[in-house]
Backbone:
């Protein structure tokens, strides 16, 4: 899909300086620009690249005044960075603007869906599924029986939604993620083997949630595993059965949350964090990367370490830890002097 400088300027409410008919069909960094690409200049540190770039169009601030002749067409705007971000969002919307049902697909009995559905090939929709308007389900996806999906959701290729799951409006789930698989529940027997505990609950994902690739959210043993409004989960995250994650909490990649833990709203959790089961994490808690959480955390706490403790204390302790070899040498020297 190609866009002219005039069309882009219209979207951004900018002014064209150069060829209004210049066309672009791809995006690039300014230092890597090539013919047919669109780039932007917002940081003065990169000013020199505007004179050598091979990009066809560059978005710049209105305050930018070139010192030398330019071959690139400029679109002048109030804020080049914000305008480029706006254009990325627009481009993404256009790219994802698919509709219709590709073949082969399987749509089971009593499925209902709204206008604007896109269902990619080799997808399966189970019985009694309810799908809202403007939902995009990309190829090789699985939607189990009795699933409910709200409006304006996007499920990228290879998403698996197990039966009974409930997903709200404006949710995005990336490729390879599994929603509603069995919780990890087994009862030990006297002979050392295990009986599986049936997992008969479900998963509820509220509005405006985004879940990265290859994450897993387990169904509850009883009741629901709940992801509240506005939660953002990175790639490769494990959320166990009966966990609840509060509104607008953000969790980075490779974090694991054990069963029945309740996490508050507006928390920030770094990558590779491990959180034990049956804990309560208060609102606004911040957990630094690679921390191990084995106890409840109060509202507003910031912790680090494994086991994790107060972030300020951790930083002070780490200074001493780094100096431990020197301190030991000093101690050995003192012992020798005393002898």
Residues:
């Amino acid at each position: 899909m190609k866009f002219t400088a005039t069309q882009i300027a219209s979207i951004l409410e900018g002014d064209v300086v150069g060829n209004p008919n210049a066309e672009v069909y791809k995006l690039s960094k300014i230092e890597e620009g090539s013919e047919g690409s669109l780039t932007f200049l917002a940081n003065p540190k990169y000013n020199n690249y505007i004179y050598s770039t091979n990009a066809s169009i560059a978005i710049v601030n209105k305050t930018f005044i070139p010192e030398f002749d330019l071959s690139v067409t400029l679109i002048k705007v109030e804020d080049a960075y914000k305008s480029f971000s706006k254009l990325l969002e627009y481009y993404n919307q256009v790219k994802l603007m698919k509709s219709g049902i590709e073949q082969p697909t399987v749509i089971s009995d009593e499925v209902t869906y709204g206008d604007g559905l896109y269902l990619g090939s080799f997808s399966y929709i189970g019985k009694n599924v309810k799908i809202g308007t403007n939902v995009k389900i990309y190829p090789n996806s699985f939607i189990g029986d009795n699933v409910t999906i709200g409006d304006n959701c996007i499920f990228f290729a290879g998403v698996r939604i197990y039966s009974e799951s409930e997903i709200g409006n404006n949710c995005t789930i990336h490729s390879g993620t599994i929603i509603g698989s069995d919780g990890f529940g087994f009862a030990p027997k006297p002979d050392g083997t295990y009986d599986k505990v049936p997992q008969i609950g479900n998963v509820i994902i509220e509005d405006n949630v985004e879940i990265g690739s290859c994450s897993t959210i387990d169904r509850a043993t009883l009741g629901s595993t709940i992801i509240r409004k506005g939660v953002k989960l990175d790639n490769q995250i494990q959320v166990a059965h009966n966990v609840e994650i509060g509104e607008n909490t953000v969790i980075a990649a490779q974090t694991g949350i054990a069963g029945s833990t309740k996490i508050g709203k507006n928390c920030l959790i770094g990558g590779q964090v491990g959180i034990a089961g049956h804990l309560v994490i208060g609102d606004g808690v911040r957990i630094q990367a690679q921390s191990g959480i084995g106890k409840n955390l109060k509202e507003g706490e910031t912790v680090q370490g494994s086991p994790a403790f107060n972030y300020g204390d951790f930083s002070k302790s780490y200074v001493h830890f780094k100096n431990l070899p020197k301190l030991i040498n000093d101690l050995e020297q003192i012992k020798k002097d005393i002898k």
Observations:
- DSSP finds four helices and 40 strands in the chain.
- The first helix runs from residue 5 to 12.
